[in-house]
Specification:
By secondary structure, the chain is α+β, with helices and mostly antiparallel strands. The chain has 14 helices and nine strands. It folds into two domains: 171 residues, Glutaredoxin (3-Layer(aba) Sandwich), CATH 3.40.30; 53 residues. A hairpin with a 2-residue loop joins strand 8 and strand 9.
Length: 315
């Protein structure tokens, strides 16, 4: 019967993903458009390496950039959250007057967002300034690329928030950069011992003022007419998509398909459960079965920290 069916059917197809050849589906002719949208939108992500709320929005912001970055040019801007501790209030809105005040606030952010934050180092060995880590970001951006600098920012936040490492210490920064395959000592020395590190950071501070950003995270999308939207604080995924629609003056956007979990983990090296849930619309209770379906058994390791699962590549 199958042979006769094939003989009488000219609508044949070999599926690229499965490798199976057979009768194609009954879909109508499909209209497609290979024209890529012009990137006339600049998106400024104003942030800081020690910003806990920036860590909290990583799952949402990653999905947004993965699916919609073909519409905009991304600019990550250092905001200068903490130059140094002093006698006055640092962040009175959140009750932050001294380093120990940060620990409880960070833990609350971590528990609410499910992006784990230890925070106890702010009692035992507090971060004295966010400027050293920010200067390293600028040097990597200058010497390598925006993408490499953004990867470093992620690694610095993992070290600080999840693994309780003090990223205001040069030895910690050198280790982070070395693990990326770069010369950590040379980069950190240039950031700390040469004026260029602070000069580049000051340029970011000027841009932050010109953009009117007064808190972190702030995401500002601007079109070619210098009109746009400013989104302050962590927001749901749809909020960023709607903002982009407004700036583009479009009723609908064409998102890219989410990357496969295997390619995303290979690129990111480490993903927390919440990040997988947000990227692939998976319930927390289904993450383990989703991973077992999507990844080869020996390609990843599952670990737990502060009550949250995270996954690393074994490659």
């Amino acid at each position: 019967m199958r042979e006769n069916k094939l003989k009488n059917n000219n609508n044949m197809l070999c599926d690229l993903e499965t490798g199976v050849c057979g009768v194609a589906g009954e879909e109508e002719m499909e209209i497609i458009d290979f024209n890529q949208p012009e990137k006339n939108i600049n998106l400024y992500y104003v942030t800081d390496p020690i910003c806990s709320h920036c860590w909290a929005i990583e799952p949402t912001f990653r999905r947004f950039t993965e699916q919609y970055s073909h519409y905009f040019n991304l600019h990550t801007v250092m905001g200068g959250l903490l130059e140094k501790w002093h006698d006055g209030p640092i962040d009175p809105a959140n009750g932050i007057h001294k380093p120990a005040d940060v620990a409880g606030h960070w833990r609350e952010v971590g528990e609410h967002s499910r992006m784990p934050i230890d925070g106890s180092l702010m009692i035992d060995n507090p971060v004295q300034s966010s400027y050293p880590a920010s200067r390293v970001f600028k040097i990597i951006q200058k010497n390598h690329s925006d993408a490499t600098a953004f990867e470093y920012l992620r690694r610095a936040r993992e070290a600080l928030f999840a693994f309780n490492e003090n990223i205001s210490e040069q030895s910690v920064l050198i280790k982070i950069v070395n693990k990326m395959g770069l010369d950590g000592e040379a980069i950190v020395n240039e950031a700390e011992q040469q004026p260029i590190g602070q000069q580049l950071l000051n340029e970011d501070f000027t841009l932050v003022r010109n953009l009117g950003a007064r808190g972190f995270p702030t995401i500002i999308m601007v079109n070619e007419e210098n009109k746009g939207v400013k989104i302050v604080g962590g927001r749901p995924f749809e909020y960023y998509v709607d903002g982009l629609k407004q700036v583009l003056n479009l009723e609908a956007l064409q998102p890219k398909q989410q990357p496969s979990l295997s390619s995303l983990l290979e690129k990111e090296k480490m993903l927390f459960s919440k990040e997988i849930e947000v990227m692939y619309d998976v319930e927390q209770s289904e993450v383990r079965s989703f991973i077992e379906k999507e990844l080869a058994p020996n390609s990843y390791e599952a670990k737990e920290i502060l009550g949250e699962f995270y996954f690393t590549t074994t490659k």
